Structures are given as C-alpha cells and as structure tokens.
Protein 1
Amino acid sequence: MFGAFSCFWGTVALHLAEPGIGLGAREAGLLGLTGLVGVLMASPIGRIGDRCGTSLPVGIGSAASLLAYLVFLASGGSVPGLVAGAVVLDLGNQFGQVSNMARVQALGDGIRSRTDTIFMFSYFLGGSAGSAFGAMAFGAFGWSGTCVLGGSMALLALLIHVLHSKSARRGR
C-alpha cells in the first residue's frame, strides 16, 4: 500500500510541471496539504480498528487506494482530480498503516521492537519501490503509466488482503 502511495507522491510534481498543466514546486507542495485529512483521521481510524478488528480497516484502505487511482485516471490528471484522489489515497494509506501497525503490535510485547523494525523496513521498502518504479513508469508512459502502476500496486494490496482474510477465516 505504501508503494502505491509513494508512486503518486514521487511523480505528482513531474505531472504538475507538464506543459498542459504548467504548475511548479509551490503548487505540488500545496497539494501535500491534502495529507492533513489523513492526520486528522488517524485517531478515528484507530478507534474503528479497536471496535471492528484490523481486517475491515485494511480492506477499506486497500480499496480506497485503488479508488484514488481510478479518480486520477478518470479525471485525466486534472488538478481537481489530483486533489480529490490525493485525499482518498491518503485516507487509504492511513487506514492501512494504522491497522497494520496495530496487527504488528498485537504480536506480543516481548518481540515488539523486532516486529516494529521488520514492519517499518518492509513499509519503506515498498515505498521506495513505489517511488522508483513510479518515476520509471512516468518517464516511459507519462501520467497514465504512473496511474496504471500505482493502481496495480493498490489492486495487489487489495487482493492479498482478500486472500489473507479468507485464509484467516478458514483457519478459525
């Protein structure tokens, strides 16, 4: 999920600078303010996970990330579409990160430092891959290539979540 998130944020400034849009670093930075929605929602997302378990919020997060890329594609990469999609993408990322971190924390107090380390290493490895491959997709195929890649990453996260959830239900 963080790969899909980083795919967008690693390339959006390049897209904004394209001749059809012609915006610069200041506008890309202002787009980053959409992240405030996710910051404000972190605590409510955590409460949802406390009440419902972590599976539902992870599913919501994966689906929201995929929806964000559909918004980016459907809007043709327009600024309003970028703003709307960025809010949805950030919310999706928050749902996933908060809930997955809760899963890791629940593995046990005695191993918490190790599981936190593995989680954060994996999380940022995915983010790095999203940024790197996103830049390559943008260079080769433009904004639509970035959207297809990021959407594919979000879809993969959703599919893994669904398969994991089915497997967990069968194991009960």
Protein 2
Amino acid sequence: MTRKPSAIQRFTKKNFHTICDELARLDTDLAMIIETHRYPPMWTRPNTFETLVHIILEQQVSLASALAALNKLRGRLQPITPEAFLALTDDELKACYFSRQKTVYARGLAQALVAGELDLEALASLSDNEVRSRLIALKGIGNWTIDVYLMFVLQRSDIFPIGDLAAVNALRRVKNLSRDVSREHIQEVAAGWRPYRTVATMLLWHLYLSSPMRVNGLSS
C-alpha cells in the first residue's frame, strides 16, 4: 500500500472486494475476519437530509433505537425534507422519539439547508477536510457524525472513526489490546491501513456485528 493518496479517494462496488483483499494481504488479523465471516457489506447511504438526520439519531444510542425513531419520522413525513421537518412541533418530534437535544441538532441542520448555508450535493466535490470544516460548524455535528457521513455517504476510503465504540472495541479485540490502550496507539494501529482505513473499519464493524462481542450499535 504505497500508492500516494489523492485529495479525494473513494471506494466503489467495483473495487471494494479488491481493497478488502489488499488489506488482508497487509494484515493477517483483517484476513482472519474475512476468512471467518466473509466480506463485509459495503455500507452506503444516499446524500440526503434524511440520511444526516439518521446519523444524528445514531449518536450515543443503538442502531435499533435510531432506526425506530427514523421510522416514526418516516411515518409522519414522506419524504423527509428540511422544510417539512421544520414544520413539526416539539411534541410531534418527541412522539418520534427525538430527544430535546437531537431536535435542536436536526432543526439546525434543516435551517442551514433551507437558508442555503449548506449544500449537500456540493460537499461531494470537496476534500475530506473541507467537508469536515463545513459540517463541524453546525450544532450537534461532531467528528463521529462527520466520519460516518464521509464513510457511508461520500464513500471516502481513508477514514478511521476514533470516536466509534464498536470499531475501537473490535480493533482492540483483533489486536489483543487492553481496554486502557490510548487513543494515540489505536490511531497508530489504524494508520497502518492507510489509504483504506474506511474499508478496514467496515471489516471491524463486520466482526463486531457477526460475533458475540456485539452489545449495542456502531455509534458512540
């Protein structure tokens, strides 16, 4: 893996398994995941307001809880647009399992989109760092949310979400690291998977979801 990374690197359906195989050649622990559980799904999501609301809902809760809230919202709004979302009251959003905090975050996102302060389509042509700087300015949009957006939506190939509990726990497991290992050391291990840290993370998630270590969801 000596190829020089470009400003924007993506994985696709055509190269996903090839990247998995390259990671397996580089790292026997990742190879073990493929041998035991086969290739991971290539998780992707559309570049929409609904998707970003979904990621916000996944903050600090299980995937099942977040999906339940999203499905409640889908039952009330179809399609889920920023304008329609802003028309909902606090009580209507509470009935969709939105906490007060996540109501504020999702409304802020909707307002930014309606006001033209944020253009999701335009983000696709920006570098990872530029995308991060645009999104981090919004209340409630932190690095974990941006990492998931870059990975699942924009399909950027070299992201490791250090704030993701499932990925970190799976990495600790495959590398036989103690629970008190530093974030810096975890990042050093993940750096060995450049420029394909996203796909390596998907292998870790695949292990997490396929084995008894599964507890809650992917987010933290």
Protein 3
Amino acid sequence: MIKAILIEDDANMCEILEEYLSGYDISLSAFRLPSEGLAAIGMGGFDILILDLNLPQMDGLEVCRIVKENSSIPIIITSARSAVSDRVVGLELGADDYLPKPFDPRELVARIRARVAQKPTPATSGFTISKSAMEISKENKKLSLTVAEFEVLKLFIENPNIVLTRDQIVDSVESMKWESVGKSVDVIVGRIRHKIDDDPKNPTHIKAIKGFGYKFVP
C-alpha cells in the first residue's frame, strides 16, 4: 500500500480524498495545518506528499521549500491558484508535479502511482528496498520476510539513527494490531534480527533503546 500525506486546509476535500484513495490501495493521512504536516513528515514513513498552496500559518510554497531541504519525499502540488509563476516557483523549489484544481481524483491516483514508482530508494548499509515487489535485500541477497517484517524493516531503513517507540512502529505498520503492542513489536524485531545479523543476540543494526523503543543503525 502507498502511504500518502496531504496538507490541505479544506476539511471536505481531505475527507473526500481519504475515502476515494483508500479504494486504490493508497492510505492518506490528512493535516490541515502545515506545522502538523511537517512534524508528521519528519517522523518518516510516507511515500509521497500532496500539498495545497493556500494554507494557514504559511504559504504552501514555503512548506515545499522546507520539505525539500529536509526530505527526499516526492511532492505533488494541488492548487486553485492559476498563476504560472506559482507553478514555476513550485517546480523550482523541488516539487515533482503540479495538479491544478479542480481535478479528477482518478488523475491524482495516476500521478501518485507514477511518482512513487519513480522514487529511488537509496541503499543503506547494503540494504535495498523494492516497494513494488515488497522485497528487501541485504548485500544483493533477498531476505525472506513476512509482510509485517518487511514493513517494520522498511520503516527502520527509511529512518536511520532515529529512535522509534513501539507505538510509533505499530502506528506506521498496517499489518500490525494495537493489542499487545510491546510484545508484538519485540517479537517481530527479534525475527528480523535473526535474518539480518550473524549474531542476533548482539545486533548490528537494530538497537534497543531502554525505556523508548528501537533505533536502526546503518
């Protein structure tokens, strides 16, 4: 499933897109305030950003600039502003696409899929991710992972050197449930360690941070 984030101050638009995109295997997290959206992007785990320009707190073009300075997430700008200068500036700031409002939601789906497919996934300490095939390889050797293991390891790889709590991990991994949060995460992390480390009892990559959660070390 593609995980998209939307920064859009129109509550009705947020609700419509959340429901529509879910039918195309696209999970959408909508935020009406730029500050909230930027904080969520900083946590990682999203495949693409859909960004409106007319926002409270700050202009969407400023949000675009901040995101591109701190993240490699693809950005699709959607806006009712028709000025060519806005489109040019948005693309110059690093936006990957510009979709004028009003638009057909089917076109948004197509553009999301196209941009996510083009997004390169950098290697991290020998790990490479194939999102389309839901596979992770270490030093060019494909790992045998369950869906939950794939999603958890992918989350770690995309957020190196960041401490993730168990709740954050579960909240970012759709194949996991809230019941027995700590036990579920610990069990999956243990299984992953056995598949990526020569000595799982002395893990090289996934470090336990006492009282907090786990951190992936490249």
Protein 4
Amino acid sequence: MNWYGWLSLGSQKQDNKDRDSGQRGALFLWSVVGTVIMSLMFCGYTWAQKSVVVLVDGNEKAVRTFSSTVGSLLEAQKISLLEKDEVIPAPETPLQEGMVVTLNRAVDFNLVVDGTTAPARTRGRTVGDILIEYGINLGPEDEVSPGREEPVVSGMQVQVARVSTVTEDSEVPINYETKKQYTVKLEEGTTRVAREGQDGTERQTWQVVYKDNKEVSRQLVSREIITPPVDREILVGSGMVVSRGGENIRYSDVRQMVASGYTYTGSNTASGVPPHYGVVAVDTAVVPFGTRLYVEGYGYATAMDRGGAIRGNRLDLFFESESEALSWGMRTVNVYFIK
C-alpha cells in the first residue's frame, strides 16, 4: 500500500471517530434538554395546582385544584348554585393559594301574600328580614304569621294577611206594622182596611273588617230613619169598644157602679190569693169570681174578693196604702166587663 492509501485510511478512521463523538454529544444535549423540559413541566404543574378550602353551610373541605376562578372551582367540585345562594368571594374572582371559598345556601319556604302562595328562597334570618327582602310593606292592620321576630326555618310558611276596616252605609227597609182598631160602626167580626201600610227606609252605618278582601266581621255603628213606615190600619167591628189611655178595650157590658177603696187587712182574699193592686171585692151574686173588669180611674181589675158590706152594684178596690184608699174615697164609675 502506498502512502496515499495509508493517508486515506487514516483520514477515514478519523472521520468515523469524529462522527461517533458528534453522536454522543447530540444524545447528551437532548438528554439535558429533556431533563430541563421535564423540570419545567414539573415546576409548572406544581405552580398551577393550588390548595384551597371550600366551606359549604359550615362544612369544611380541603381541595387541591387547577381551577383558575372561584366559579370554575365550584363547577369542578360539582357544587351547583341556586337562586339566592351566596358565594364569598364572587364566582369571577381569580383563585389563589390558601383561599377560603364560602358558600351560604338560601332556605326554601312558602310565601303567602294577598291569598296567593308561591315558593321562595331567602338568606334572611328572621321573618322580618323576609318582608324587607321581598319588599312587602305592612299596613297598620295587616297581620303576619309567624311573627316578625320568628327565625327562618326551611320549609316554613310565611303568611301575610291584608286587613282593612272600612265604614259602609246601606239603606234597608223598615217593615210596617198592622194595627187593628175596633169600632161599633161595623158589624161584629167584619173588617175593613182603613189605611194601607207602607215600608219606611233606614240608613245603617256599619264598621266592616276585611281580611284578604273577605269580610270577617261587621258591627252596626249607627242607624237613622230616612222615611218612617206607615202602619196598616184595619177597622174591626166589635159591637162595643171603648178607648182608654190610647188602648181600645172590647167589652160585653158596661155598668155604673159605686166603688170604694180598701187596703191590707192582714188576711188573704176570699179567693185565697194575697191582696194586690188589681184585686176587687164584689157581690158574687152580681159579679162572679174571676170576672175581668176595667174600672174608669182605676184600670184593669179582677173579681177575687168579697166583703160583708159589698152588695149589689158595689165594688171595693184594693190599694197598696191606706192613704191611696182614702184618697179614692167612694165614687160612681163606669165599669166595663171585658170579653
């Protein structure tokens, strides 16, 4: 082999050696780059993951998460938000290491206002808080149940009743009455209408209490007659009627009799009853016991006593005192025998 051949062979060996060295360097470089990338990825992973605490209605839970905001954290934890629920901090707040996320759940209840029931939610602590939250203004007579200071309980019913007291006027009829007037101008037992009746009118003022537009009580405050009623008058044939003291007295007989007066004697009457005003002593041969009389100047009387000096058309009228009996004296009067 000549010199040139040895030179070519030496050069080829050197090239192979250099090539092997380059390959080893490239492999080392890629190894270093891979290690750096892995380190960076690990650091990034560690940096992106955060430790936070989720507090739901007082129940605490520690969480490690890659979520970037409070809202995405709740979604990742499958915690749904309902109406009126409160999240602190707000859902759009960026999540930070060591942050405490608090969720206060609202309470479900039924709200009854103006007779209408609807489901509702609240974070209020008392019934009074609910009224403020829902903008319910109470009138001076309105009622709320339970009371304003009662605590809110899940599933409770809060009822507001609108109460109002109003004054109402109404006109009502006054029914007429039918009155009989006895007369001797008609045959006994026959009747004739002397005047037709007519109802009157009365204005009544009522105090009415309404609860949710339904009447619950009514009280009469005053009344005023606008038009008085006109009574119906019927004439009745009686044969014999006398009017005394505004009263028509039907009688079967009238006699003039001498009447005297007496008072307590300490004994009962001859009929056995104690003496009292309206008792008259008679001659039972002329006036039987139990006969009802109307004595002018005295009034109604019943024959329930007798006396030794009472004979014929004589009467002895009982008075409550001796002075009244003496004041009466003895006089002749018309005595009507009542039917």
